[in-house]
Each structure stands twice: as structure tokens, then as C-alpha cells.
Amino acid sequence: xxxxxxxxxxxxxxxxxxxxxxxxxxxxxxxxxxxxxxxxxxxxxxxxxxxxxxxxxxxxxxxxxxxxxxxxxxxxxxxxxxxxxxxxxxxxxxxxxxxxxxxxxxxxxxxxxxxxxxxxxxxxxxxxxxxxxxxxxxxxxxxxxxxxxxxxxxxxxxxxxxxxxxxxxxxxxxxxxxxxxxxxxxxxxxxxxxxxxxxxxxxxxxxxxxxxxxxxxxxxxxxxxxxxxxxxxxxxxxxxxxxxxxxxxxxxxxxxxxxxxxxxxxxxxxxxxxxxxxxxxxxxxxxxxxxxxxxxxxxxxxxxxxxxxxxxxxxxxxxxxxxxxxxxxxxxxxxxxxxxxxxxxxxxxxxxxxxxxxxxxxxxxxxxxxxxxxxxxxxxxxxxxxxxxxxxxxxxxxxxxxxxxxxxxxxxxxxxxxxxxxxxxxxxxxxxxxxxxxxxxxxxxxxxxxxxxxxxxxxxxxxxxxxxxxxxxxxxxxxxxxxxxxxxxxxxxxxxxxxxxxxxxxxxxxxxxxxxxxxxxxxxxxxxxxx
Length: 531
Ligand SMILES: [Zn+2]
Description:
Layout: H1 6-9, H2 14-25, H3 39-52, H4 54-57, E1 63-72, E2 78-86, E3 89-92, E4 96-100, E5 106-111, H5 129-140, E6 150-154, E7 161-171, E8 177-185, E9 191-196, E10 199-206, E11 212-219, E12 225-226, E13 235-238, E14 253-254, E15 256-257, E16 261-262, H6 273-294, E17 307-312, E18 319-322, E19 327-331, H7 344-358, H8 366-387, E20 397-398, E21 408-409, H9 432-448, E22 451-455, E23 458-462, H10 475-489, H11 496-511, H12 516-527
Parallel strand pairs: 3-6, 10-16, 13-17, 17-19
Antiparallel strand pairs: 1-2, 2-3, 2-4, 4-5, 6-7, 7-8, 8-9, 10-11, 11-12, 12-15, 13-14, 18-19, 20-21, 22-23
Helix pairs in contact: 6-7, 7-8, 8-9, 8-10, 9-10, 9-12, 10-11, 11-12
Zinc ion is lined by residues 349, 353, 373, 376.
């Protein structure tokens, strides 16, 4: 195909195109105002209006105006917004808006209080910057890491004075990136004001797997929204295809967005934020499941949020939890049948590995490894039941959205071709994702019972290994028993026999020996040959 002539017909010169490309590469958003004809003329007229009415605007020697925004109404009326500097220093509270007609004649103005930034005292001996910074960090209540204090003219109360403005950034209570702006009088060292440099927000996400979702986001000081969940402390980042083994918590880039509306709802999306929507929302659902069901305050029960990476590796059809990084990593699928690995049960599975590490810490080999994997499958699935989403409906299929039709299933695990339905002496020799079948099968039988059953449109048929017929007590009760077994009774070397004992101890604590729940748990273990 020959080169099209369309690019040559464009009126932009290549130099202009390069300039735009440079702005885009630098992450600068071109506001629609840039495209409005007459913008430059409006700015020039507004500057002239300020100079001509210097008394009104408190505009004098040493001052300069910096255009912040231009709004032109349908009838041509112009509103030009300026920030102001004084001998090069930003004037806090010195901003103004010039309202002028279509011909640029001054009609009115809006002025912040500090429109006469003449510093009252002579330029003082300013305190050392490091002293200011230390005081600010101490006052802020968040940990260390301080930006260089910036000298400003602070005039927000109408009285101009020299001040140090410092953004103290570090980690908030939940481990999320957090910041405060602190302003101190440069002469006296007194604090003038402090405020959060970031604000909680609620974004809208168009997800791949769960329709439209709300997202916990943070409005940053630069006016961009970020995928930092203020309630839970989770941070979602783009790994830019870095391999999982190379990722640290500081890797990748935080997702930011101008309008707090994220993603396009498509699988294999070209919008890199789409997978991030699912990851951010599903991590929140997992956090909420543990919190609202068990009172667990985050993965380590310490209120701290994890870092979540999407777009890890290239065609990496997997997801992973790392204790050392306190991170979840998710791949983009195999590029053909499997989309991004960020669906509800997958995210719940990976976070549960963190919970297991923080509790029983089941060794990741032999039967304890199978129990570790089964625990992640069980609670990953329970997160799906908890979310009760109308698009990704609750089921006993694992990773059915990101690995269609499913990666593993609970009613008869051997249907995947390699998982175990029943305990044998050799089950501990299997890969942990296959020896997990015994635990998954137990969970299904204890929850739903044996035989054929259709739930939310999916038909299951669960056999027993001992020819018995067992009844289920519902997955919420079984999950409650399993959580207590995991967090109170199991240890790093627990095997299937030990898991039976641990879950019966938990059932006894919660429902009593000989209760229907206790008996159902015992019968389900016997039905998978764990005596
Ligand atoms: Zn796993």
C-alpha cells in the first residue's frame, strides 16, 4: 500500500506536529481552549486591560501574569484567568479573572484576596530551608520525604508576606502515596496553613469483566486523578510489560487521568487503563470481602493496602502475589483466547496468597502447597459470590472470565485433566495447582452437596469418593469455618488430615460439636477420602 496523501494535506507543519508530539509525550493534556480561535487575542486584550486598570487589579512593579485558562462564551464574551508572580515568586491568592466582551473591552473582573502582593516588610532573613522542612514533616503526621521548600508570596488572606511552601510527601496510614502542603511565614517561622495535597474521589470505570464500576481514586495536587484507593490504600500501576521477576513496589507508573473516567470496557483493550479498572475494583472487592465478612483489615490485617500491577510481562497468561514486594502482578493473557488476568476470582486468589502468608503460611509444596492453592481458589471464588456482580455472576468455576471456559472447577476438579478429586497417599506429589483439587472438591461438597445441581445457570455434578451422598450447608458457612481453620489452627506443615482436624475444630468453635455444620464438614472430608 502506497503512502496516503492525507498526511500531506494536513495544514500543520511538521515542526508544529513535532511540538504537539513532544507535549503528548510529556503527558501534557491539550485543553480544548487551545483550539478556540481568538484565544491569543483574548489573552493579549486581557493583559492590556489589567495594565490599564492597575489600581483595580493591584498590578504593579515586579508583577507578571501567567495565563491559566481561557473561556469564550457562545456570544463571544471572554473570561481570561491569570495567576500572578511577584519578582518571579508565585503569589498564593493573587489569581484573577478578566471578563471582557467579544471585542476585548473590560466588562468586569473576579479577583482573589491577595491582589496587591506588596510584601509589607523588607525582604527578611529567611530561615534555613532544612529547618523549615523538618518542622513541616513533623507537623504533617506522614513519613519523611519532603519536597524542596519553595519561597512564595502568600496573600490568600489579603496581607502579602514571604512564606515557605512545602509539599511533604510520603506514605499515608494505609501505605498509599500521600501528601500535605504546609506553608510557614518566612520571617517568623510560624505556620500559616496546611492542607492535604490530595483529595478522596470516586471515579467511574468501564471494566472488562464486571460492567461499569465505581473506583476509589485520589485527586492529586496537580489536578490529575490517580488510582490510589483512599479507603483501602491500594495503588494500581502499569508495569509496562516488565517481567514479574523484575518488579519492585516502586516499579512501573501510577495510573492517572484527567476526568476520573477510566477504561473502555473491552477485553484485549488498546486502552491500558481498562485492565487497571478491573484490577483496582476487584482488589477493593477482595479487601471488602475480608473486612466485612471476617473483620480482617487488609491482607496483613494491619490496614495497609497493596500495590497492584497490570500489563506485567508479554503474553504472560498468569497472575502472582509477592510477599517481599507486597504486590499483585497480573499479565495480559495469551493474546488469543485469554484476556487480561484481572477478573474477580483471580484477584481474590492472589490477594488470598498474601492472607495465607500472613497466617498459616502453608508451605508451597506437598499437601500443604495444595491446601495453600485451594485456600486461594476458595476465597477467590467467595469474593465473586460476595461481589454478586450481574455480569460476572457467582459460580464454582475458577478463572472462568480470564481463562474461558474455566481454568479449574470445584465440583469435579479432575475435569481439567490433571487435578485430583480424592485424597491418595500420592496426592502431595502433584503440582500444587492440582493437589488443590481435593480441597476444592471438599469445599464444593460441604457447600452444595453431592450430585447434580444448577446454580446461576451453570450445571454441576459432584461425585463422592466413598459412594456417599452428602448435603451442603452453603458456601458462606463453609468459608467462615475455613477462614477460622486457616487463621487459628493451621500451620505451615498442615496436610489434608490436619486440615480436616483444623476445620472441625473451627466448626466446633462456631457451631458446636455435633451441629449440622460440624457433621457436614466431617462428611465432606470423608467424601474426598480424607478420614
Ligand atoms: Zn495461586
